[in-house]
Amino acid sequence: MNAQLKMGWFEKHTQWLLLVPTVLLLLALTIYPLIYSLIAMLHTVNVRTGERTFVGLQNFVEIAKDTFFWNALKNTAIYTGVGVAIEFLIGLGLAVLLTSDIKGRGIFRSLLLSPMMLPPIVAAVIFKVMYIPDFGVLNWLLGLVGISGIVWESSADTALMSLIIVDVWEWTPFMFLILLAGLQAIPLDPYEAAEVDGANHWQIFRDITFPLLKPAILIALLLRIMDTLRIFDQVFIMTGGGPANATETMSMYIYRHAFRFSNVGYATALSFIMLILTTIVSNIFIARLKTEEVF
């Protein structure tokens, strides 16, 4: 009788029991680190001894006065704004071009997606070799047209742009892929009506294609902006944040405080600010996306 009761209990609660491993894993990987970080950002933490000293909001006061933080925030904003804008314009142009009936468009689509298949670290290493001032292929190509070699990563004037070029090369295919899917999902009826009314290509794009493509555009921009705001691997491999902090992004600055200076409390406070900024940006896009009609 007891065995039957136990069996009945397990059968009745099977769906909840199956969730237990997932819930435990979620607690271990997300909830606990979140609680720990909320505590750590209000303390100074001695990594060696594990001692914590409560300082309240002092870490945030120091951040507000930290010129290196504002420099990192500026670099991150430039990297995100310029990189995503270029990726969007090129991706949109390629998507519009390759939705038209041109010969070999399937091959072009496949080739365009190939950079996205590489791990970011591999792309960073490839471009680091290409950027070598004396032997890199980019300066060799510039020399063919009479332009003197550029010190890509070693100059504060060009270092950040050299990182943006890598990001554009690797992630424009991602933008292209989402926009292409959005274009192919647009119904043909509005285009047929516009042709009957005698609209030209620009009018069709402005009044039909772009408005109906807005949901895909917002999704593509949201995903890329959230990704570029936390850029770390390419910066770490190619410039390390230099020269003279010209390429130090928020993620790189947090890494430096957490793992080089062992200033865990300060790094956690920086991470919390980064989380707030990312959440604000994402909520703006999500709110805008909700107002768009999805066909």
Automatic annotation (TrEMBL):
One of its GO terms (biological process) is transmembrane transport. SUPFAM superfamilies: MetI-like (SSF161098). Its main location: membrane. It is a multi-pass membrane protein. It is found in: Cell membrane. PROSITE patterns: ABC_TM1. The chain crosses the membrane at residues 16-39, 77-99, 111-131, 137-156, 168-188, 208-226, 264-286. Residues 73-285 form the ABC transmembrane type-1 domain. One of its GO terms (cellular component) is plasma membrane. It holds the Pfam family BPD_transp_1. The keyword Amino-acid biosynthesis does not apply. Keywords: Cell membrane, Membrane, Transmembrane, Transmembrane helix, Transport. The keyword Transmembrane applies. InterPro entries: MetI-like, MetI-like_sf. Belongs to the binding-protein-dependent transport system permease family. This is Sugar ABC transporter, permease protein, putative. It comes from Vecturithrix granuli.
